[in-house]
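Workshop exercise sheet. Pairs work together: one partner reads the sequence aloud, the other fills in the structure field after running the prediction. Swap roles for the next sheet.
Pair: D.N. / O.F.
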Amino acid sequence: MATLSHELDWLFIPAMRLEKSKAELSSYNLRVANLKSAFPNGKIVYWEASRENYLCDVAYLMDDKQLTFVFINPYTAEIQGRANLPFQRFYRD
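Structure field:
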């Protein structure tokens, strides 16, 4: 199951999905700025760049003593959503 965890996340967490794009990647600084704007009290503890062209970047954010996984579109730098425990993290833990 762990080997399919990203695919399960894609299936059950729509905010993690990307449309295939031939656009240029947005700057990392813009993605971080948008994340900090959306979660001003959050602290980035880890950043996982998308490994596949159908998945968002995932920022592991400590916000109010709660680990939150935030999905960021690497092309538009838009925050697409968040989850408290995606399949990928559940199976790895």
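Discussion prompt: Helices lie at 5-12, 28-38, 87-92. What would you look at next?
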